[in-house]
Protein: DUF7847 domain-containing protein
Organism: Streptomyces pyxinae
Amino acid sequence: MSDPQGPGIPPGYGHPAPPPPPGAPGPSYPAAPGWGPGPGWSAPRPGVIPLAPLGLGDIFNGAFTTLGRHWRQLFGLALAAYAVAALAVVAVAGLAYLAVAGDIDRLVHWSHDRAPGVDEFLPPLIALVVVYLFGSLVLLIANAVVQAGCPAVLQDAVLGRPTTIGTVWRRVRRRLTSVLGAVLLTGLIVFVPVVLIIGTFTATLLITVITFHDGDATAAFAVLGLAVLALLVAGPLATWLWVKYSFAPAVAVFERSSALTAMSRSSRLVKGSWWRVFGISMLGYLAASVAAYLLQLPFSLAGGLFNQAPQQGADAPEVVAFVVIALVFGLGGQLLGQLLTSAFPQLVISLLYVDQRIRRENLAPTLMAAAAPAAPPAPQPPAPTGT
C-alpha cells in the first residue's frame, strides 16, 4: 500500500511554501463582500479541523476528534512502543542481575563481623547504572515513536482521509531517526542549563551549611539567595527553549526534514507566537493529566478492592490471585493514563504547527486542494471507424 502523502499531495503540505515576493498580499480566505465573511460562510472542514486559522476550541476539538477516529492507530502504536521498551528493560535487568547475583547475595548475607567493602558494592552499583541508562534510552525511543506517530496520523486526519496502522508505522519508521535526533537535541539544550544550575545550587547549599556552621549567617544567606536566583533563571530559560523547539517532531514528519532543519524551522514558526504556543501546549498537558487521572480512578478503586479482599486465614493461592488481579488493574490504569498523556499533548502541538503554517504561509488553499476528491477522467470520444 502506498503512502497517502505521495505524489497526490501538493508539495506545500509536506514542505514549506516558498516565501512570497516583497509587497505581496498576505494570506487570504474566502470572504463575502464588505468587511469580512458573511454570516452563512464557514471554513471548509474535510477532516478534524476547519481549514482556516484555528482557535483554542478548534485545536482541542481536532485533537479529541483525532483520538476518537484514529485511536486504534495512535494507541496501538504507543502500546507497541512502550511494551517493547518494557520488555527490553526487563530483559537487560534480568541479565544484569544474573551477572552480579553473587555480589548481591554477599551483600544480603554479609557478616556483622566484616562490613561489605567497595569490591562488593561496586558491581551491583555499576549494573544498576547501566540498567538505568539503558531504560532511559529505550524510553526516549518509545516517546519519539509516539511523537512521530501523532503528526503521521494527522497527515490524513486533517484531510479527512482514512489511514491504517501499517501506513502510520511506515511513516514513523522513515522519520524516526530525525524525530529521535530532534527530541534528543532538544532535551540536551533544555536540560543542560537546568543540570548546571541544579549543580550550582547544590554546591552553594553545601557552602551555606558550612558557612552557617562557622557562624557567618550573613554570608550564608547571601550565597543561598544567589543560588535561588540562579534556579529562578534556569526554569524560565528551559521553558523558553522547550517551546521554541516544540514543533520539531511535527516538522520532521510533515516536511520530512532532518533533526537540525526541523529544530531551526520550529524556531522560526514559534517566533512571534511564543506565548500562544506555550499557553495552548500547557492547556493540552493539563487536560491530558486530568483526563488520565479520571480514567485511572476506577482502575485504582477496583485494584484497591481486590487488594483488600483477602481475609485473615485465606489460602496462599487466593492471596496471590487477589494481589495479581490488583496489580493488573493498577498497571492497566497506569498504561491507559500514559497512552493518553503521551498522545493528546502531541496532537495539540502538531495542530498548533498546522495552525502556524495556515496563518503564516497560507497553507489552507493547499490543504483544500489536497482534500478535494480527484475529478473523474473526461470521457474520450469514440475512435473513428474505418470506411
In short: The two ends are 47 Å apart (CA to CA). The CA atoms of residues 148 and 224 lie 42 Å apart.
